[in-house]
Amino acid sequence: MNRTIVWFRRDLRIADHAPLYRAALRGEVIPVFVFDRALLHHPETGSARVAFMLECLRSLDQDLRDRGGRLIVRSGDPVDVLPQLIRETQADGIYAHVDFERIYGRVRDARLNNALAQENLKIRWFEPLATTDELIPYPDYRDLWYADMNAAMVPTPGHIHVPTNVISEPLPTLTDVGHLPDAKQIPPAGTQAARNFLQEFLHEKADRYYWQLSYPSAEATTGLSPHLKFGAISVRECYQMAQQLKASPDIRVQRSRKQLIARLRWGNGFAQRFRYLPQLELRSLYNIFDDDGWAFDETLYRAWQQGETGFPIVDAAARCLQATGGWKELNFRIRALYSSFLSNLLGMDWRYGALHFMRHLIDGDCPIDHYQWAMQSGVTHCVDKTWTRIYNPGQVAVDRCDPDGIFIKRWLPELKHLPSASLGSPLPMKGYPTPILDYKQARKQRVQQLEQQRQQFLGLENVVPHLSRLPASLLPFGAERFDTEVSWATTSDHSLFPPPLDLDAIAPYQAQALRTWFVAHVDVKPRKASRRKPQPEPGDLQLSLL
Ligand SMILES: Cc1cc2nc3c(=O)[nH]c(=O)nc-3n(C[C@H](O)[C@H](O)[C@H](O)COP(=O)(O)OP(=O)(O)OC[C@H]3O[C@@H](n4cnc5c(N)ncnc54)[C@H](O)[C@@H]3O)c2cc1C
């Protein structure tokens, strides 16, 4: 009988899962998850996120068992573990989704490809939903995204036959994998939990999501981000559930539906940007913003982390992040406000902020987190001033996001006695710090700095020479600050898979396509959705990422 290993990574579900479905059609399946120290001890890995992932794995194991299977757990470097598993089980090969969240994953998969090829062992990579290995203009990507979302879901296998003699390690605990619980409450995990959140959204939140999504105390958003991060539910399933609201005559519901769908698309779009330019994990999009130098001050960084800035909404965000991992309450607006404070008002390198977020967020997702940080810091756009988003952290923010002060007072009980109108800038008092900066002055300084940096782009037709290249060192940012496992980044073999775009050899039409991803107003005519490969012109760089 045919026998296929299905390697689960950030797709911890059995529904709408092409590799699992195809493998089950072929015959016996060995569904495996490999605990890899390099990811478990990456500088950006947070304990709460690992705890959530363990719960997702427990749920995946149960879902497999409900269909006659089980999850096989192994530990070690996948480059050793997987070829060994093929040999041990006499499997025909491996099925897995392509993963391009992190540089580490690309290096790992490149090494695995090489190791398998050396032994003539097989792996088949499946394109995940809403992504492409071709460089296409953003309008085409939009079409592709909707085509994928509207396509039928991949059927869930009715029965999953796992050979009985394949040995599995027990599912480890958090401490087994070298992490300590950090007191954050872990959301209900797994596919069914995600579906429950979606139902809650459809029935209880759809009429208010669109106008309450910036109010942390309203908890109006879906809460799905940790599930989407680990693929406990597919984006397509979320999209198709949200589309059920289309039948509603309520205009508020229609607004919410559209807003949610746009956000699901944004999340995938950031991942696609990282597919093209993996350097965005380590660098700003344009050289100038990093080369010009960022300020850094450890004491101020700590004040920002601990919630001791003297700006109540910023401090509430800081404490909420550390206590809860951001799930539910730390919505987009609060994250944006909190991040803008560090990078714009304190003038510090956004990567320190992104690192702190990743260590605490239960939904921490490198492409979304890093790109959002860079966006909020104003460094993803080289000419467009509207991308200078410096949030006023005073009363304006309180009035817009927390008009009754519920969020602030929950996290800063020392301010409980104050009326909402004083929560923007409380008078000096015992037990709460005075502001660590002058907003107007800090803002002015940052605006000037960004304007100066953007000067060099004025009138430029081609910005590609100014885009950051993949740095020679792939060492994750902040590796020296923690006890981490980053030896993979210090080896001399940096062969990336899939390879990054060669920006120095890029053809003009490709440069233009790339630009549509980063600058809104580039005139590329949208094409009809098509998954056909565009015909390269002779001599053009062929972007074969797989
Ligand atoms: C500095 C900063 C860092 C962020 N880091 C992350 C992160 O690491 N992981 C993460 O999932 N989101 C991140 N976000 C985006 C956003 O804040 C969260 O997706 C959202 O708060 C998650 O809650 P939800 O699932 O209830 O959101 P909902 O509003 O219910 O959205 C549903 C889904 O859409 C996607 N989404 C929503 N908003 C955005 C957005 N602005 N950009 C991209 N995708 C979005 C997410 O997958 C989310 O789960 C960040 C935002 C900022 C400003």
Automatic annotation (TrEMBL):
Upper taxonomic lineage: Bacteria, Bacillati, Cyanobacteriota, Cyanophyceae, Leptolyngbyales
Listed PANTHER family: CRYPTOCHROME (PTHR11455), CRYPTOCHROME CIRCADIAN CLOCK 5 ISOFORM X1 (PTHR11455:SF9)
Residue intervals of the Photolyase/cryptochrome alpha/beta domain: 2-131
Protein's UniProt name: DNA photolyase family protein
One Pfam family this sequence matches: DNA_photolyase
Organism of origin: Stenomitos frigidus AS-A4
Residues that span the membrane, as ranges: none
Keywords associated with the record: FAD, Flavoprotein
Matches recorded under InterPro entries: Crypto/Photolyase_FAD-like_sf, Crypto/Photolyase_N_sf, Cryptochr/Photolyase_FAD-bd, Cryptochrome/DNA_photolyase_1, DNA_photolyase_N, Rossmann-like_a/b/a_fold
Cofactors, names only: FAD
SUPFAM superfamilies in the record: Cryptochrome/photolyase FAD-binding domain, Cryptochrome/photolyase, N-terminal domain
Region (Disordered) residue spans: 527-546
